[in-house]
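pinning this so it doesn't scroll away 📌
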Amino acid sequence: MQLPPTQAAVLKAADAQTKRDVTEIAAETDEKPESVTRAAFELEDRDLITVSEHVEVSVELTEEGERYATESLPEIALYEAAVDAGAADDPVALGRLIGDAGLDGDAVDIALANFARKGYGEVDSGEVTVNPAVTSTEDAEMAALDTLVEGGSIEDESILEEIDRRGLVERSERTVRAVTLTDEGITTLMEGIETTETIDRLTPDLLTSGEWEDVEFTDYNVEAEASEKQSGRKHPLRQTADRVKDVLVGMGFQEMQGPTVDADFWIHDCLFMPQDHPARTHWDRFSIENPGKIDDIPSDLVERVETAHHEGVGQDSEGYHSPWDEDFARQLALRGHTTSLTSRHLAGESLGDLEPPQRFFSVEKAYRNDELDETHLLEFYQIEGWVMAEELSVRDLMGTFTEFYEQFGITDLRFKPTYNPYTEPSFELFGRHPETDELIEIGNSGLFRPEMLEPLEVDCDVMAWGLALERLMMLASGAEDIRDVHGTLVDLEFLRTEEVTY
C-alpha cells in the first residue's frame, strides 16, 4: 500500500497492544503534533488504526500558591499566633496578633476571611478567640498545596475547587489522543507499505509543466477536529458606542471631545455646583496627587461664575452664600462626568461662540468613586448630549429620548423628576431590563438653569443629558451584571460569543 510519509510514519509507530500518545509519536517521528493528528484520523478512515481521546486536567500552583506553600496560609499564621498568645483561654487583641503573625496588606483580609470559615475561632469587636478543638496541622487546603509541591494530585474535588477559587492554583485541560493498530493495520504492515510524496496545493508550475497529471494530491478530512483559534473581535461595549454615534449623527448631532483631566471650574463651577457639594469631595471622586492648576481661564468668565455662586442670577435666585475659592476652581481633577465638555463648548472655549440651533454629543469615559455592583463601575462611559435652541420644553427633551432609544429597540421609558444643581426641571430616565423585567436608571437630564447659562453668556434654552452607555448595552443585550462585560471580572466567553442586536 502506498501512503504519504506522515501516515506511513504514524502507522509504523502505532502498536496493536498499547495505546500510543500522538505527542510521543510526533516527537519520535520529528513531525508536528497537528500533522500526526491529521494523519491518524486519515488512517482511521482507512480502518488501519483507531484513535481514542480523553481530557487530561493539570493543576499548577500560582505565584501566590507557591508562596503560601513555602510560608503557610495567612489564616494558619493568624491561628498559630493566637494560640501562642493564649487566645484559647482569653481573647487577644487582633492588632497584636496581626503583627505577631507577620501579616500585612491583602494577607490580613485573607486571614480574617478564612479564619472563621475553617472554624479556627472567632473575631469579635477587635478581639480574637481560638477554638481549642481545631488544629492547623490538619488544614486540608495547606495539605493540598504541599501535595502539589511534591508532584502529587488532589483527589478531593471540593478542596481543589476552594484553592482554585482563592487563586492558589491554575487548572488547565487538554485533549490527549492515542492510536492503536487495527487488524487491518497489522495486515497492511506485514504486506509492506511504500511512501509516496503528496502535493497539498496546485501551483502554476504544476499546471504549465503538466506534472499535475502524475502527482498524488493530499487527501483532506474536512470533518477532522481542528485546533480552536480565538480571533479578535470588537468589544460589545465598543459596538454599542459606535452605534450610539451613528444614531446621534443621524439625528443631526456633532461629536465633541475634551480633556479627561480638567479644571474643577469646567467640571463643577460652571455647572452652578457649590464647592462644598459632596460630589466634589474624595468620597465621590478620585484625587490627583499633584493636581496642578489651569491658568488660561478667562478672568471675566471666572468673575461671572463666582458672582452666580455668591448672589445667583436674576431676581428669583439667591446663589449659595457659601465660600468660593478661585484656586480650588482652577485645580485639575479627574472628571466624574463629561458635562465639562458641554460647559467648555457653551462658553465658546472649544469652537468659539455658537449660535442656535446647535446639537452636540460625546461618548467619553468618566470616573467616580462608586461602590461596585451589577450596574456601577469605577470608570464608565457617559453619553453626553445637549441641544441649544429657542423655546425648548420638557416635551422636546422627552421626545429626543424616545427617538434615540427606539433605535435600540427600547420603548418602555420612564421619567422621574429629580434635583440637579444645574438643571430645572430635571428628570431621571429608567428603562426596563429585558431579562429581569426590572426598571434600571439609565440617565439624568434637564434644562440648564439660568445660573449656569447666563455666566456663559448663552441667551437661549439648552436641554442636556448624561446617559449610561453600559446600561444601554445591558438593556440592548440582556446582560444582567456590567462586571461580566467591562472591568477586571469580565466574562471572556461572553465577549467572544455575544452578538449585540437592536
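📌 and the second one:
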Amino acid sequence: MTQELHIVGGGMAGSEAAWQAANMGVRVVIHEMRPKVETFAHQTGNLGEMVCSNSFRSDDDEQNAVGLLHWEMMQAGGLIMRTAHAHRLPAGGALAVDREAFAEAVTAALHAHPNVRISYDEVTDLPDQGTWIFATGPLTSPDLGAAIQQETGTDRLAFFDAIAPIVYADSIDMSTAWLQSRYDKGETEEEQKAYINCPMTKDQYEAFIDALLAADKTEFHEGETAGYFDGCLPIEVMAERGRETLRHGPMKPVGLTNPHAPDVKPWAVVQLRRDNALGTLYNIVGFQTKMKYGAQTAVFKMIPGLQDAGFARLGGIHRNTFLNSPTLLDAQMRLRSKPNIRFAGQVTGVEGYVESAAMGLLAGRMAAAELTGAPLPEVPQDTAHGALIHHITGGAEAKTFQPMNVNFGLFRPVDGLKGGRRGRKDRYKAYTDRAKAAWSDWLAQQRLDGAAAE
C-alpha cells in the first residue's frame, strides 16, 4: 500500500485518529504547526496538550454518558484513554490527569509507532488530492480557517473557550480551606479528598459577585460576538445572568462539610482540583474567565483561603470555530464538497476533550478502512460514539446547530422504561448496557473482517 493518511492537527482528535489508523496498518503523517507556529493557549509543541482543564470528566461507565465514552474508547484500544488512565490524578469520580506527563506520553507513543511520521509544518489550504483528516480544533489558524470558509461557503460559527487559572498548592491557606470531594465520592481516601474547598459566607459571596461584575474584562475584536457554549461559560458571564447563578453552579455548597466549622453551612464554596501528579498545582474548578490579568489576581484573592494565592497561570480566552456539520459532512465525516477530506474533533461541533478524541477515533478508523478497501461497519447509533456522530452529521437541527457534549439526551429511548428523575438510574444503566453490547459487537465485526481479509 502506497497511499498515506494525512492528519492536520496533533490535539486529542488528531492524535487518536493517527493511532487508530496506524494500528490498522496505514501509514500516517501528522501535520502539527506547533511549536513553529504558536497559539494563544498552548505552552508546548507536544501532541495531545491539554489547554483548558486537566479533566476528562466522569469515569462512571454505568450512569454517565462521558464515562461510557471512556469505556468505548478503551475497548477500541484508544491512545488518549489508555494514556489518561496511566497518568490519572485523584479527582473523586472524575478522570483527571497530570497534563504535562500525559502530553509527553502521547507524543512519545506516536513518535515510536512505525507507521507514524510527524511533520511540524502549517497546512493552510484544503488539498484536492490525497486522503486527509482535519482535526485542528478550537485554535484553527486564520489562514486555514479562511480556506475552510471559502470552501464551505458558510460563515464560521464562533464561541469562546475561557481558560481557568491554576494556583500553587503551597500558597493556599489550609487553615481556612479543606480537602474533600463532593459527597465524599471515591473508593479511596485520596479520591475522597481530591478537591480543596474554600468556603464563603453570604457577605463574602455578595462582595465577590460585586467585584466580578465590576472587573475589567477582555474586549472582543471588531466583528466578533460572544456566542458562548453553555458548558464553558466564563464566571463573569454566569454572574451577569443572575447573582445566584454561581452559587447554584460551580460554587454550589452541597455535599461538603467544613471541618474547621462543621456546624456552619457555607453560603458558597469554591473548589480547586489537583492539576499535576506532584500535587503542587490546583486549578479553580469552573472558573474560566475573560477578566484581565490584574483584575483576576485582585478578585480571586477575595476567596477565603486564596488571599495569598500564587498563580502558576491566569485565565484567558480564545476563539473557537466549528463547522455546521449537519449540512457540510456526510455520515463518514467527509466534507461533501471534497470527499477526500474528513473533519474530526471539536471543529465538527462536539465539545470537550473526550468527545473530540472520540470523533478522532472514528475518523481515523473510517479513513483507514477506506484506504485499505475494507469498509467500516456503520457505527451503532445506540453507542456513545454513534449518538455523537449521528447528532453532528444529521441528527441536529442545522439552523440552530451548536457544540454538544455527549449526554443521554442524544440516545434513543429504551422501550418500557420510566421517564423523569425517579427512573433515571435504571434508564441510564439500560442505555449503557445496550451501548456496551452494540459497541462490542461492532469491534468484533471489524476483527472478523480483518481476519477474513488476511
